[in-house]
Give the backbone structure.
Amino acid sequence: MDLGFSDEQTLLRDSVRRLMDRHAPPEMVARHDREGTYPYDLYRAWAEAGLFALPFSEADGGLGGSVIDLAIVGEEIAYTSADFYMAYAGGVFCGLNIARKGSEAQKARFLPPLIAGDLRMAISISEADAGSDVGAMRTRAVRDGDAWVVDGTKLWSTGAGVKNTLLNVYLKTDPSVSHRKGMSLVLIDNDAPGVELKKLDMLGRTATGTYEISFDGVRIGEDRIIGGVNGGWDCILSGLQVERIVSAAGNCGAARAVVDLAADYARTRTQFGKPIGSNQAIAHMIADMQTEVAAARALMWQAAWKVSAGEDALAEISMAKLFSSETYAKVANQGMQIMGAFGYSMEFPMQRHYRDSRSATIAAGSSQMQRNLIAGLMGLKVN
C-alpha cells in the first residue's frame, strides 16, 4: 500500500492551500461565520481552479481525478473552514450520483453547469422522524399524468437555500413496499413553485446554512428522476463510500487546523514568565492531540487508497468517518481549554471550530450508526 502523493497530487494540495489563503483569509472566514452569509466569491474561485471538474470523468467534462484527489481538496478546504468545506462537498457528492446513475441526457443537462460553478446542488434526505431511519421518510411524489407531484417536508438540508441550487431530494414513490424498493431521487429547483425554504438557526456552520424545505404540490417531469422510478436506494448506496471518505478528510483538515492554532498559542502565550507550552500539562495535551489527528489521517488515507485501488473498504471507511469526526470534536474541546478565555471569545477562531465540530459526529452517518456498521462487519449482531 503506497500512501505517498504523486507529484501531481502534491501540486494539487499546494495549489488548493494557496487558493484558500488568497480567497479565504481569517477575517473573511470570521465575517461569513458571523453574518451567516454564503461565500459566493470563493465558490467561483473553486470553479475557475477546476476543483468541481476534478472528480468527474473526462467523458462528463471533468478531469478524471481519483478519490484521493478529492480527499486532498476536502482536507485543504476544511483546514480553513469546515463550513466552507460543506459548500464544496455537497454539490460534488450530488453531481457524482448523477454521473453514476443519471441518463446521458441528464448528465449533459446538469453536469456542465455544476462543473462550471453556475449551478449548485444540495442533498435532502432527513425529516423530522427520518434521520438514520431512512425508511421512515414521509415526503412522497405521486404520478399525475406525465408529471409527478411532490408533497412533504425535509429537514437539515445543507446549502438548500443558496442561489441557483438544485435540490437532490430522496422521497417515496411507492409507499406500499420497503424504502429499498419504493424510494426515488428527484431533482427540484429550489425556487420552483410550491417550494418554501427556511434557514434554521444552528449552533455552527452558519455560512453554508442548514434549511427546512416544504414541498406543496411541486410538479416535476420524469426527466428529473435520477436512476429511474424507485431507484433511489441504489443512488444512495452508489455514493456512500466516497461521501464518507471525503467527509473524513474534511474532519482531518479541520482537526489539523485546531492543533496548529493550539500549538501556536501555547508557544506565544506567557504565564509566570514562560510560554504555557513549556508546561508539561499543556505540552502533553497538544502532543496527544497531534497524535490522534495523525491516526485519524492514517485511517482516512488508508480507506481512500483502498477505494482508489478498487478494493472493498467499507470497514476502513466507517472507522475513518467515526474516528475523524470524534477526533475533530475532541481536539476542538481541548483547544478551547488550552486557549482559555481567548478560545471562548468570538474574536478568535477556536470557538468556531468548537461549534462546527459538534455536527461532525452527526452528519454523513452518526457515530452510533458507524459503530453499528463496524460491529456488523465483524460478525456481531447489534440490536
